[in-house]
From TrEMBL:
<protein>
    <submittedName>
        <fullName>Helicase conserved C-terminal domain-containing protein</fullName>
    </submittedName>
</protein>
<dbReference type="InterPro" id="IPR032830">
    <property type="entry name" value="XPB/Ssl2_N"/>
</dbReference>
<keyword id="KW-0378">Hydrolase</keyword>
<dbReference type="GO" id="GO:0004386">
    <property type="term" value="F:helicase activity"/>
</dbReference>
<feature type="domain" description="Helicase XPB/Ssl2 N-terminal">
    <location>
        <begin position="339"/>
        <end position="470"/>
    </location>
</feature>
<keyword id="KW-0067">ATP-binding</keyword>
<keyword id="KW-0547">Nucleotide-binding</keyword>
<keyword id="KW-0347">Helicase</keyword>
<dbReference type="Pfam" id="PF13625">
    <property type="entry name" value="Helicase_C_3"/>
</dbReference>
Length: 611
């Protein structure tokens, strides 16, 4: 009796973040919630209570089951044979989740739906109230002892996962990936990223989930692309890269199961899913699915190897993240800052390149593989890209000379010089709202070149028909397509193309994914969230609306209340069993005086549950 009444008052006292945590947990429909009483009733719904109870661990469920006997707080520990601190921690969670009421002056009271949920579970063959409150031993966990090779294998996995994420991010920088409705990259993009990282689509999807948690990617509209944080990450050392991924993994473990999972990793549990399924006997897929995802990433990052927790993995789960990164760094091969330049235009780093070397080489060469030795190839297109970024032929040759163990081969010098001589022969730009636009109505971009023969060749190139090119003069073509698309079409057709800004300066253009109109980003809602709306509409304890709502609930639930009236200088207090509320008056039975009272609502200044 009086549950909604009491819980509505409790909800008003909670901080906003606690209220927001309750809303998604209980799936309360905000459209039907106009005030704190509506919110309380949504939380008391049987289905809502069952969903939250299913996410309780076995210890907390035992306390909840025992509390149904009407036991006081200090007696629960004795009844269950447990430490008082353990029971108090469980009760704190149950109160936080609005599953029990405790006014400090009587027994703990689970909300009324709790008993029905326990009965329904027992009837369906799942653990019921009687079974859950009995002492039970956790399943024997056969911890896997680390072998002498565990840390070596773990460090290889850690370095490999960093490489997979890094190659994926570089590829996303070159061409963002399309997102499907479920928030995952499309399969063609997963295969493209897998090819770039010498991995599998499944591993790429797992790696991207960690990268997203670490803030290395941004999901914008229907595309996922490299973020500014990701750019900085690519320029950091391997151990630092791993540390950001690993801490993001740890912090992303769902709060409800985090302590159990980290404890299992400290011990080296083999079957994490079996163990968590026992601790959360009613959660089913709500615990199994995230546990499997957490375990898969732990194996990917070398935190565990076939169920055994690595040395640096144990440091991480023990909250010694910096020590974990230092330990891993000491196990990785020494990074190199110099390379071998070969006559076939390949660049070989005889070991893992430093982040600085890798980033610089990728600006002027195409990566071809990373293993014990990393391999890059310098091409006309890659040199053109470096020139577009502001380098000169002299800059490039001087840099190559500075990092080479073998000097710069003549074929490479010739390639750089030839690319520089052809650089900018074809230029692409945007037609602005100016004289250009009036001369080319309906056209969005232009192609220009001082080489009229080259313009003529482009105009009849069948691979470029989709651009709808139209000549303006012998040195210029226009297109209805945006400049970025035109640029990449010419690039793929192997023309010496450079994008330029309005002043004619080289401009780097990143390849964009094909956007799908049905997955455009939804407009940001201007409506306040549920908690903000409830706070805005709440006018305080003494407002007539709040008092009237409390009395409506008391009449509906037949809950005795104590009301205080203010009439002039005088105050009166009555405890009544409310019968009706109408016409601005409350009618109810005063058992102590054995009379029926009719009280003006306008004079009532306080309402509280009697008792």
């Amino acid at each position: 009796m009086g549950e909604a009444f009491a819980i509505a008052r409790r909800l008003r006292e909670l901080p906003d973040d606690a209220l927001r945590r309750l809303t998604p947990d209980r799936r309360a429909s905000s459209a039907r919630i106009a005030d704190f009483f509506d919110f309380a009733e949504a939380l008391l719904d049987d289905a809502s209570v069952a969903r939250r109870m299913a996410l309780l661990d076995r210890d907390t469920l035992a306390v909840l089951a025992a509390a149904l006997d009407g036991t006081e707080r200090h007696s629960l520990a004795t009844a269950l044979g447990r430490e008082q601190s353990e029971v108090d921690a469980a009760l704190e969670r149950l109160e936080r989740d609005i599953l029990v009421l405790d006014d400090g002056a009587g027994p703990i009271r689970p909300v009324s739906a709790v008993a029905a949920v326990f009965e329904e579970w027992a009837a369906s063959g799942r653990p019921g109230r009687a079974e859950l409150r009995l002492p039970a031993a956790a399943p024997t966990s056969h911890a896997t002892r680390p072998s002498p090779d565990t840390d070596a294998l773990a460090s290889e996995r850690a370095a490999g996962s960093v490489g997979i994420v890094g190659e994926s991010l570089h590829e996303l920088d070159r061409e963002p990936a399309r997102l499907l409705g479920r928030g995952a990259p499309s399969m063609p993009d997963l295969k493209r990223l897998a090819a770039a990282a010498a991995s599998t689509p499944d591993q790429i999807e797992l790696a991207l989930s960690v990268a997203s948690a670490a803030g290395l990617t941004d999901a914008i509209g229907s595309a996922i692309r490299l973020s500014e944080v990701g750019e900085a990450w690519l320029a950091s050392a391997t151990a630092e890269r791993w540390l950001r991924l690993a801490t993001a993994w740890r912090d992303a473990i769902p709060a409800t199961i985090r302590d159990r999972i980290l404890t299992a990793y400290r011990r080296g549990s083999v079957d994490l899913v079996e163990e968590l399924s026992w601790w959360y006997p009613l959660a089913e897929d709500a615990v199994v699915a995230p546990t499997r995802a957490v375990d898969a990433v732990a194996e990917l990052l070398g935190i565990t190897v076939d169920g055994a927790t690595s040395g640096f993995g144990r440091l991480l789960v023990d909250d010694h993240a910096a020590d974990a990164a230092s330990t891993l760094a000491s196990m990785l091969p020494a990074e190199v800052s110099q390379v071998v330049l070969q006559d076939d235009l390949t660049v070989i780093a005889l070991g893992p390149p430093t982040a600085e070397l890798d980033v610089r080489l990728r600006a002027l060469a195409e990566p071809e593989g990373r293993a014990q030795a990393s391999r890059y190839r310098i091409t006309t297109a890659s040199v053109t890209r470096a020139l577009a970024d502001g380098d000169t032929a002299e800059d490039l040759l001087a840099y190559l000379e500075s990092i080479s163990l073998t000097g710069v081969p003549q074929p490479l010098r010739y390639l750089v010089s030839e690319a520089a001589s052809r650089f900018g022969l074809v230029r692409v730009g945007t037609i602005r709202a100016s004289a250009d636009a009036s001369a080319d109505p309906g056209r969005s971009s232009y192609i220009r070149s001082e080489d009229a023969g080259l313009i003529a060749a482009i105009s009849v190139d069948q691979s470029l028909v989709a651009l709808g090119l139209r000549p303006s003069d012998e040195h210029r073509l226009t297109s209805r397509i945006e400049a970025a698309t035109v640029y990449w079409a010419l690039h793929d057709a192997r023309y010496p193309v450079v994008a330029e800004d309005d002043g004619g300066a080289p401009l780097r253009i990143r390849r964009q994914p094909v956007m799908r109109t049905n997955l455009s980003a939804p407009a940001a809602s201007t409506e306040p969230d549920l908690v903000s709306r409830l706070r805005a509409d709440d006018s305080g304890d003494t407002s007539s609306a709040w008092l009237a709502k409390q009395l409506e609930i008391a009449v509906r639930d037949h809950t005795p209340v104590t009301v205080q009236l203010q009439h002039g200088e005088r105050r009166s207090t009555f405890t009544i069993e409310p019968v009706s509320l109408a016409g601005g008056r409350l009618r109810g039975l005063d058992r102590s005086a054995d009379v029926e009272r009719t009280l003006p609502l306008a004079m009532i200044t306080e309402v509280r549950i009697a008792g």
